[in-house]
Amino acid sequence: MTASPMMQSVAVIPAPGPDVSRQAMELPAGLTVGEIVALALPGLPVTARERARVWLVSNEGETLLPDPALWGRIRPVPGVRVMIRLVPGKDTLRNVLLIAVSVAALAIGQVWVGPAIAGLTGSALLGQIGAGVAAAGLTVAGSLLVNSLIPPSTPRVAGTELQAETPLYQISGWQNQMTPDGVVPSILGKVRVAPVFAAPSYTEIVGDDQYIRALFTFGYGEVELSEMKIKDTTVDNFDEIEMEIRNGLESDDPVTLYPAQVIEDSLGAELRRDRDRDDAGNVTGTGDLTPVARFTAADSTEANLIFQFPGGLIKYDGSGNAKTASVTVRVRQRLEGEGDWDDVTTLTFSAKKREGFFRQYRWTLPSRGRYEIELARTTDENLDANTSDRISWLALQSFRPEYPLNFGQPLSLVAIRVKATYQLNSSLDTFNAIAERIIPDWDHEAEEWVSRATRNPAAHFRHILQGTENTWPEPDSALDLETLQEWHDFCRLKGLNYDRNRSFEASTWDALAEIAGAGRASPRYDGTKWSVVIDRPQELVVAHVNSRNSRDFAWSRNYIETPDAFRVSFLDETADYQQRERVVRWPGYTGDIDVTEELALPGKTDPDEIWIEARRRQYEVIYRPDTFTAVQDGAVRTATRGDFVKGSYEVLKSTMAALRVSAVRGQVITLDGWVEMEASETYAIRFMKQVGSGDEATFESVIRSVRTVEGTTDSLILSGSGDVPVSGDLVQFGVSGEESLDLVIAGVQAGEDMTNVLSMLAQAPEIDTLTDAEVPPKWNGRAGGDAAASISVPGIPTVSSIDTHFNGSTADGLTVLLVPGSGASAETFTLRHRIDGGSTWTSETVDAGSGAVVITGYVDGDTVEMQRKATSAESYASDWSASF
Length: 884
Prior knowledge:
With 884 residues, the chain is mainly beta. It folds into six domains: 5-132, no CATH class; 190-259 and 404-434, Immunoglobulin-like (Sandwich), CATH 2.60.40; 263-400, Jelly Rolls (Sandwich); 454-534, no CATH class; 632-758, Thrombin, subunit H; 793-871, Sandwich (Immunoglobulin-like).
C-alpha cells in the first residue's frame, strides 16, 4: 500500500523573532505555493505580494520563484522546504521577515527525497528518490543553505540541475569516452584522469601486424603528465608502444603519430560468393556476386580497406601438406549521387597461414567528396573442407589531409601508436595518467606569482578569471590580488586543496563558488574587482549594527535533528584516485550509524582533508544555528558580506542598549536614554572612532569600561584611560564582555526605497578552534571507510580433512587441511595445537591458498587439542575456533 498525497502534510513553522513563540500548524500536502504563502502569512495584502521572495529548497539546491503568477501552478512535493522572505517596503516588517515551510518528508514509513518542483511542466524538473538515507537539504544541509557564510557546493552539469561526482578513473570497468561537441576538459590541481578522445582511434595494418593509433586530450594546457597507464598497468610494462606528448603550450609542434583526419567505419561484413543450390542442398552451379557497399566520410581524399582472415588462408593436399590459397576481391567506387561504377582494382590475397591475419588496401580518390565503395568476392565458395579462405571487410577508413584538431587554444595531447600483441588486445580505451595543471601560483617566499603545478584554490580562482578557458579574461586590474595572495597563504597553512577535472559545463560564477568553497571562502565582486570572503575569525570590526542604525530586526533558528554521520564520496588520492566514500561521525556521537546525510565536497581528494572539512560543516551547524536580519536605510553602508560587525539588540539580551551621546564632560558622557546597572556586575560601552581624515579616514571599534552605579541613569562615568566618544556618537552599552554580539555579515539584499537587508551569523571562532584541533582517524580506504571495518574480518576456517603420518607402524604427525569460512577473504590460516590438557600452544601459519598445516612431535595414542583462525591481507583476524 502506498501513501496518497492527502495522507501527508506540510509543516509550517514561522520564526519571526526570539520574542515570538514558535507556532506549528499542519497543512494538507498538495497545496500550491500560493496557498502556502497565504496560510503562512495570514492577512498579507495582495499588494504586498510583490515584496515576497519564495525559494524551493531541497537536497538538489534552491530554486527562486520570482513571479507570483507561477505560485498557483506549483505544488511542492514531500521533502521540500519553502523559504518565504519579505523584502522591506515603506512600512516596517515588524515581526515577520523569514518563514520556513517544510513539506513533510515521511509517508507511511518511507523516506522521500523528492523533486523540488513538480507540475510546472507536467513532470518533475529536479531530483531523485534516495534509498535508506535522510537527504542532505531536508535537515542539516538545508539549514546550511540559509545559515552558512559559505554555502555547501551543489555541482552542476549541462542539461541537469545536479551533477553527481562521478569517478574520472576507476580501476575496472572504465573506458575512455568519445565526446563529440562536448566540453573541453579543464584540469585543476592534481588528479588521475582518463582523457577523452581528441579524434577517433583507427586501425593500421603493417604486414601481418595490426596497430592502433589514438589521440587523447587532457584539455586546456599546460598540463604535466605522469604515471601513465593502460587500465591499471603502467605503459612501461608493455612492448611496441610509441607515444607523443604535447603539454598544451603555444610552442607545441603538431603530433606526427596522428597527422591527419581519419574516420573509421567498423563493418565486420563477410564477403561471400555462395554457389547455387537446389532445395536438397546440392550444388547446381556458380553463384552470382553478392557485393557489399559502404560510403566514405564526406570530403575524403583517400580511402583505405581493412580485411580480416579470421581462420587464416591455407589449403591442404591429399597428403596433408600445407599449400598456398588465394582469394580475389573486386573493388569499385562512384561519387555519391552518380549512377555508374568505376573499377578501382581487383585484389588477390594469397597466403599459407593457419592463424588469422589482416590485410589493407589504400588509394587516392579521384577528387574530394563522399564516395560509395563496393566490394565483391569473385572467388567461388570453396567446397573443399581442407581449405580455409573466409574473408571479412573489417573496416572502411576515410582520410582527409587536414590536421585532426581545429581549436583556438593549446591543448594537452597524447598520441599513441600501439601494436596489437598478446599484452595489448583492445585495451587502449583505458588509457589514463596523473595530470597536474601548470598555472600562475603565488610563491610566498619569493612574494611573486610563478608558473608551476599547484593545488591551491586561490591560484585556481585566479585562473578561472584569467585562464584560456575564459572567453573574456579579466585583467590584473580587475582582481584584488592582495586578498588572493593572503587567501593563498591561508589555504596553504590550512592544507586546503582543490583537485578536479572540470569536464562539464558551468558558469564562471559557479566555478568560482565551488573553488572558493574548497578554500573556506566565497567569491565577491564589488563592481570593480574580484575578490573572496574568507570564513575565518576576524579582529577588525568594520561596523556596529544596532537598534539605532537599523530597524525591523528579526531572528530565526532552524530546529533540526542531526544525522549520525555525513557521507562524502570522493576520488581517493591515496588509492590511485578510485571512488571512495568516507563516513564522518557527528561530533560526540558513538553509537551505531543508522541515519546519514550526503555532503558534497567537490575537488577534495585527500581523505584526511575530507574528514576535517566535513567536521567543520558539522561545527557550523552546531555553533551557527541562528540567522539575524535587520534593515538599514540609505544607499551607502560601511559593512558588506563577510565583514565582522558588533551587534546590539535589546530583544536578544535585556542588558544591551544602543544609545546616542548627547553630551561629554571629561570622562562623563550623557546619553539620550536610560540604562540600568546592578551592583554585582561590571559594564562597558563600545563605539566607533574615526582615525585619520579625508580619503585616508578609517574607523576602529573602541571599548571602555564604565564605573558601576547601581540603579537607572542616563549618565555614565568611564573608568581607566582611553578614547572618549564625542557628542552624536552611537554607543553600545551592556555587561562587560557582553555589550555586543560578534557577528559576520552573510549577505546583503537590496530592499525598496534604497534600503538594505543585512543577514548576519555568529562569528563563532570556536568553529576554527575545533577544526584546527581535529585529528582524523586513520584512513584505510576500504569500502565503507571508518564505519565498517568489521566487514573485512574473515570467517573462521573450516577443517576439510585430517591425515595421519606414519613412521613405520607408529603415527608421528598430522596434516590438517583448512578451507576458507564465510566473511572476507583470508590471506593466512593459523593452527595452534598442544597435548590435551597442556599449558603451552604451538602455532603454525600457512598461506590460505594451500591451507595444508603439517604438525609433528606427537605419537600414536596422543590426544591433540587444536584451534584455528584466519587473517586477512589487511591484518583483520577472526576469532579462534573452539578446540577440536
